[in-house]
Amino acid sequence: WTLGIATAPVPEERRLALTPELVAKYEQLGASIVLAKGAGLRAHWPDAAFEGVTWVDSPQAVFARADVVACVMPPTLDEIAAMRPGSVLVGALRPWASAQQIDALCAQRVTAFALELLPRITRAQPMDILSSQATVAGYEAALIAADHAPKFFPMLTFAAGTIRPAKVFVIGCGVAGLQAIATARRLGAMVEAYDVRPETREQVASLGAKFVDTGVVAVGAGGYARELTEAEQAQQTAVLSKAVAAADVVITTASVPGRPAPKIVTQEMLAAMRPGAVVVDLAAEQGGNVEGTVLGEKRWIGDVLVIGPAFIQSRMPVHASEMFAKNVWHFLAPHVQDGALAWQWEDEIVTATCITRDGALVNERVREWLG
Ligand code: NAD
């Protein structure tokens, strides 16, 4: 079988769903790999790093040749139209975002697996792109904040006195938030954090940060957070206002599955922050946790710098690609037998992630999102 690795259709996306080391592992599974020339360059891998693969001249040719295409972001509609009927697309497909994408996949009779929809079960953890890429995002968010803050993160003593450590407040303690806390702590900041899921209290404490208690608990389906009622929101805002005002840096990561990001930091809260304070809003892509965030921009709102990073994983494309590519390998490997593809259709990992098959949308969650 032929595995094609997509070159992302925009240059800002620097990740690749393959690393040079994985080529041999795929060959052991009977795969031959097709790449477009220069596919790895954005992640600093020259073509020569990928031994034994087949090169084609254009990214679109990869789609036309492969039985399975792996991608780090949704392909263009033209690329989908180039795919062979019955071929497979696997990767980050943002299946909630585009009915046109679903139509194109159906028209081409492509079997598509959106890895964002993996069930959060133990067996699926090695394939979990949301967790691996959230780890990268959380780490980078802390570094972006440190880079833009007008203060040191650590406590320092110097010849004329002592510098107090920066105060960092992290809102949302899922995978990204916990990594942001850990990274800010490694840099020596004093960290406070908040989430609506009560189990995060212990996780926050174990990283040496202080949990801010608003009294709001909001756990919904599957143990994920749910949206807050108006009364809960008011209660949350009252407590968080104080924590935000005291912080030099706020990092927000809050998200509710299938919903726009909850607005948590209001314009009034921003106005009460110290001049020069920095806010990094990791939810910018889902609309933002902060009033006024613009995806891909740094903007001053009053005296506060609000940053809405786009393509944040592409700031460290080598390790982000390595994690993503290993996730994809772990997803595909169980479905190869004796060197040939053999999909285990009864596997819940397959049914949860499959969005289109035989020309039809087959995923209930996607149908709900797209209305
Ligand atoms: P996410 O990206 O969906 O959300 C980020 C965080 O925002 C979550 O912790 C959520 O509780 C929080 N949040 C939502 N609304 C909020 C609000 N109003 N105020 C404050 N915080 C708010 O989360 P995620 O990183 O994908 O992880 C979510 C859950 O999945 C966690 O329980 C995590 O432990 C679990 N998980 C399980 C596995 C597994 O395989 N077992 C893997 C990864 C994550």
- Sheet with the most strands, sense and barrel status: 8 strands, mixed
Rg result = 22 Å
Report the count of strand segments: 19
Q: Largest beta sheet: what is the strand line-up?
A: 3-2-1-4-5-6-18-19
Mean pLDDT: 97
* Oligomeric form: single chain
> Please, how many helices?
12
**Backbone structural class:** alpha/beta
Morphology call? globular
User: Unreliable runs, pLDDT <50, ≥5 residues?
Assistant: none
In percent, how helical is the residue content? 25-40%
Strand content: 15-25%
User: What ligands are attached or bound here?
Assistant: nicotinamide-adenine-dinucleotide
What is the compact description of this entry?
It contains twelve helices and 19 strands.
Description:
The chain is an alpha/beta fold and about 375 residues long. The protein contains twelve helices and 19 strands. The strands form four sheets. An eight-stranded mixed beta sheet has the order 3-2-1-4-5-6-18-19, sandwiched between helices. Strands 11-10-9-12-13-15-14 form a seven-stranded mixed beta sheet, sandwiched between helices. Helix 5 runs antiparallel to helix 10. The protein is globular, with a radius of gyration of 22 Å. Bound molecules: nicotinamide-adenine-dinucleotide. Nicotinamide-adenine-dinucleotide binds next to helix 5 and helix 6.
